Predict the 3D structure of the following.
Amino acid sequence: MARIVKWTTDAEGALVKRVLDAAPADLPPPPGPANLSPRRFEWMLAKTGLDEVWDGVERHLQSSADPADRDRYAALRAARRARYFTLDDTLTMVAQFRPLVTQLFPGVDVSDAAIRAAWAQAEQY
């Protein structure tokens, strides 16, 4: 337990102790991007045209004879059926597929900044 500084009153000390001893679940979540529901995530994809990119990447991976591409296809397909979407997980996934997206869809902006901007819009939908 943290030591309470002597210059606090007993009431202040008790309050500080409760705060320091609080379980993380008792504290509010840190501010940050909201998770997106499947509906909002699909809205974001459609609004930005990334739904066509996602579908195109899926088709490309599905038609590949490479077993590794088949695994990537399965992971991408399953990811779109998540119960909710986090920005961090989405940015990680986009980074994994960015080289392929750039190859298949030159000129499409899938930078972290573009994804963050689309995410912010979807949070308000």
Remarks:
- The two ends are 44 Å apart (CA to CA).
- The chain has a mean pLDDT of 88.
